[in-house]
């Protein structure tokens, strides 16, 4: 008996439908997950992302592919991610300021609302540094020295540090002039060469500081840096500002609930993994691990704080 | 002393030599293939290096960094298509030599120059790291601005047939270098809301398009226009041998270029491309009567290739002496070391002497391996001249497309690369030098950054230059060089891009 075309297509449709519903029911992840790093290979974000990916892959039972989509301070990777399907197979690792600060400063292809915040693993030990020969113990000493001439320059690296320094300068009643640089390593080089008075560094300074070749004037976070217990925070010194920059893993917004839950579990577990804890210590990152709802709250508070900071530094 | 011997022993362990060899092989291949270059090779290698011991990982990465520079000369000489941006200068004399049937001679000079430059740079690193690093630290924004002004004079030196058109192309290169976020204010400039342009026009897209793709268009036009011979003159023959008298004539250029390369490698932000331009400009300036730079002068090949290889080890000086990365390769080494629990820093020598001497040993081993691989590869690659253009053109074009895509995984970069390929072709047709364009484009960002830093630090006061005698000296050299290059009769200048 010849099968009518209508019947044939009906059978095909039924078969396809069966396949799709089956795949929808199958448990995520059933294929490799990709993490795009917003910075070049070899940087802190890259190193941490790769280490976390390894642990997460073991827990998920699927390979996790790490690729570098560097550029524009992580904005290129974030822009691409914002357009991807929210199926849990595409994540981005970048610094939290890529999302909490950058869209407030310039026109980018995404807003913070485009993402689900999966995890934060590690906080950068941002600091103001100087040469020990000046004899300054904290930023207060440096600002007192700046009073004499009314101005002081510092090696700057980000829009963020320019706002922080504006706030500090206002409080100290001096002028802090940013000298632009292209990388964290260049900041340290300029300070060590004695070409600038101060420097803002997100972490490249650490080995030099440990060796006593650089003095740390203040750390910028809410808490002191674990490896530098004697260095006060900006808030402790009375400047009333702080900057917290985290290594952040994000997914497109609207993840299915079960995928979000599983991501939350595996990343939280990865954050406690001895290999990751050890890596954070070696890279002098503060051991901060947050996932799920608490992280979303933290990110929102960062966004609000930066909005205030932008307003006050205008 | 004990640690020195232990370290050298580690360097000579079979597993270290194996990874040096693998690194050199990968680097060489990447260097030879136009479109794929050093950053791409290192990016591929980093994840692999995570699984090796610290010394093996560093040996592997060093092999890549060194050999990709040496391999870049091959296609520059044989098919006028630089495998790496720094080999653009190698084309100027290398390709005319190949056309005159002296491909092997040129390839050998390039290889020996690369290895000698590399060894001298490495020796400087091993013996003088600390004093050289201190010297380099003293070069602040003011001094760097002066160096960049000197670099600007290379545009005049390499301007081609017409000084005016050469300068125009160089200025256009500088203009293209201004695209991206303003370093001081973070304001996007000429980016047309394209986030992909925030960090500037991607170097890879520009160099691959301008140098490799446009060359393929030019060659395709020749093939279509008239049935040219499959390639240049046949390789081999007595004229193509590199005898001792020939090599002796070139040797002073190699030594002088090693020093230029080492000096430029010490300063962060300059890099191998600037080094090969500088070294070539100097060699040309010191040319004896009868030496025709730009028309197939072996010294031209030697100058370009030696300097760019001396840069690589020299750029590790700040890393090993002070723990500061002076180049992309050095930054990647830091990552490889940290992942293995070694924190590069000022105390590295005291804390990890065995590892450091192991790395130094591995660098020496890499030079030897490079010589062997390059010497064997040369025989194979010389056969490239027999491959008909109808095969080379589509293959290289495909590599260009793949290379542009790989860097940022974006189609936008591929489009840019093609755009610059067409632009390069038009510049060639109307005799605007692609090389001076490239100089402008490469030095632009550092020139702008240094000058703006210097203006802030000196508060714009010219009088404060008196505190920077080194900068004044470099500026004086720049003025002399500019006058000299501008007064050079044009007919002795290199002939555009050789083709």
Automatic annotation (TrEMBL), chain B:
Signal peptide: none
Limits of the DUF112 domain: 17-438
Keywords assigned by UniProt, alphabetized: Membrane, Transmembrane, Transmembrane helix
InterPro entries: DUF112_TM (IPR002823)
Transmembrane segments: 12-34, 40-62, 109-129, 135-156, 201-218, 258-283, 319-343, 355-381, 387-406, 411-428, 468-486
Pfam families found in the cross-reference section: TctA (PF01970)
PANTHER family per UniProt: TRICARBOXYLIC TRANSPORT PROTEIN
Descriptive protein name: Tricarboxylate transporter family protein
